[in-house]
Amino acid sequence: MKLFALFVKSAPNKVFLSLVLGIVAGISYALLIPTVLNGIKSSSGTVREDVSNIYTLFGFEITNYKFAALFFFICIFILVTRTVSQVLLMRVATDVMSELRTSTYYRVMKAPLNGLEKVGAPKLIASITTDVGRIVTGARMLPDILISIVTVVGMLGFLLYLNPEVFGFLMLAILFGGVSYQLLMFIGGRYFSKSRQSIDELHESIKGLIQGAKELKLSEQKRESYFNDILLKHEKSVNKHDKSGNTVVSSAINYGDMISFFVIGMISFIFVSYHEVNEQALVGVVMGLLYITGPIGTILNSLPNITLANISYRKVTELFNRLPDENINATIKDIKPWETVTFSEIEYSYGADTDFKLGPITLEIKKSQITFIIGGNGSGKSTLSKILSLHEQPTSGCVLFDDEAVTADNLNSYREQVCAIYTSFYLFDCLLGEITPEKLETAQKYLTELGMDDKVTIDNGYFSTTRLSDGQRKRLALLVTFLEDRDIYLFDEWAADQDPQFKAVFYRQILPDLKRRGKAVIVISHDERYFDVADQLIVMENGSLVKRNQIDAVHKILEGIQ
Ligand SMILES: Nc1ncnc2c1ncn2[C@@H]1O[C@H](COP(=O)(O)OP(=O)(O)OP(=O)(O)O)[C@@H](O)[C@H]1O
C-alpha cells in the first residue's frame, strides 16, 4: 500500500481516474460471460434455429444480434477503459520513477559528508539503479491487479447468483488456496530479501574489482583469492537466492493457477454427487471458473514483482534513514566582509565507528596568510581540514567569521567562501556554472600557467580530456579552484604528485600569489623544504594540535615521525 501511496501523492487525479476506469473495466469483464451465456440460451435446443433473432450485417448472419451487439460493445468498452487506465498509471509510474531517483539525488546532495562515507557509493548506486526500478515495476502492476480483482469479484457474484452452494464451496477452496499460496510466497520473499542483501555486497566487491585492478593485475594469487573468495562468493549468493526464490515463486504461481482447475474437477466430479446442480448451472459455473483463471493468473504473476518492490522500498527507506538531511538553510545569502576565521574549542568525532577524537582545538585562519598543517599519518590533519573547509560541522565548539558565528542558517553561505582540493578529489570533465567568454579566456590563461595548454583544450566549457596523469589532473583541479576565486583555499597534500619543478612553482609562486591576492590559504603538507612559506605552522598528533609556529620543535617532531 505504501507503494501505491507514492503514486497517489504524485498524481492523485490521474490515479483516481485510472482506478475508476480499472474498476469499470473489471466489472465489464465480469459481464462478458453472463452475456455470452444468455446469448446462446435457446428454447429450441440449437442456437441457429432461433431465426427471429438473426440479423444480417455486411452479408453475415448474426445470431442473437442484441446480445452480440452488447457483447461487441462491452469488448470495445473494455479495450478503451483498460488501455486508458493502464496508460494513465504507466505514465504516472514513469514520473514516480524519475521523482524517486531525483529525490535520491537530492538526498545524497543534502547528506552530510560523513553520512555518505558511511553508506558508501556501491550501496547508493545499487539503490538508485536496482531498487527504484523494482519499486516502479511493482507499482505499475497495480492497475492490472485491480482490474483482475474486480473481474474475479464480479464473476464470484455471478456464481453466487447461479448456485449459492457452489459459491460457498468455492469460497472455502479460495481460502485454502490463498493461505497455502501466501505461505509459499512468504518463503519466496525471504529468499529475495537475502538476494537483495547480497546485491549490496556484490556491488561493493565489483567496486574492488574495478578500483583495485592495479593491485589485482600483479598477483595471480591475490586475483584468484579476490575473484573466488569474495566476488564470486557474492555472485553465487545472489544467484542461489534468486534461483531458490524464483523456484518457490514459480511453483506457487503454477499451484495458484491450477487451484481453479482442481476446483472445477471437484465440482464437476465430486460436488455434483452430493448436491443438486442442473446442467445449465454447471456449464455456467465451469465457464465462470475457467474464465477467472486468467485474472487470477494475472494477480498471481504480479505478486512476485510486488514482493520485490516491497523489499526494495524497505531498502530505500532504510538507506534514507541512514542519510539524514544536514538540516541547513539552503539559501545563499550575502555575508559580511571578514578577515579572520576563528575555530574555537572545536571537537569532532566520527561516532561509534572509531575511538578517534579530534580536539579540543582553537586556531585562527586569516586572510593573506598561509597556514601549514603537518603531522603523522592518522594524526587528524584531514579530519581537521574538513572542519576548516566547512564540509563538516564540529560536534562541539564554534566557528566564527570575525564575530559572526557559523550556524545552520548561514553555513551554506559561508561554504561559498571556500574551495578545497582533497587527496580524493573528483575532477568534473567540464567547467560548471555559467560559462562566459571572460571565464574561458581566464581558464585558457591558467591552462598555460599550469603547463597544461599542450595537453588539454577547453571546448564549450568541456576539457578535451581528463585521461591524464595524477599530477596533471590535480593541475586541472587547481585551475577550477582559481576560476572559482574564493576567499579560503585548502590543499590536502596537493603537491605530493607534482614533479620537483612544479612543486617549487606551487610553493614558491602559486601559494604566495594567492596570499598576495588576500586569500586565506591552508596547506596540508609533508614537504619540509617549503615550510618557510608558511605564516602559521601547526602540528597535529593524535587528534590534538601540539605545536604552533615553532619551526625547530616542528623539525624535532617530524624526525620523530620519520
Ligand atoms: N571516514 C571515517 N570514518 C571513521 N573514522 C575515520 C574516518 N576518516 C578518518 N577516521 C579516523 O580518524 C583518524 C584520523 O584520520 P585523518 O584522515 O584525519 O588523518 P590524517 O592525519 O589526515 O592521516 P594521513 O596523513 O594518513 O592522511 C583515523 O585514524 C581514523 O581513526
What key phrases describe this protein's structure?
alpha/beta; Rossmann fold; 16 helices; 63% helix; elongated; binds adenosine-5'-triphosphate
Characterization of the model:
With 562 residues, the chain is α/β, with parallel strands linked by helices. The chain has 2 domains: 2-322, ABC transporter type 1, transmembrane domain (ABC transporter transmembrane region fold), CATH 1.20.1560; 364-390 and 408-561, P-loop containing nucleotide triphosphate hydrolases (Rossmann fold). It contains 16 helices and 14 strands. The strands form 4 sheets. The chain has a 6-stranded mixed β-sheet, with helices on both faces. A 4-stranded antiparallel β-sheet has the order 4-3-6-7, with helices on one face. A two-stranded antiparallel sheet has the order 1-2. Helix 6 packs antiparallel against helix 7 (164-211). It is elongated and about 110 Å long. 30% of the residues are buried. The model has no long low-confidence stretch (mean pLDDT 84). Bound molecules: adenosine-5'-triphosphate. Adenosine-5'-triphosphate (ATP) is lined by residues 117, 350, 353-354, 356, 375, 377-383. The site of adenosine-5'-triphosphate has 13 residues, from helix 11.
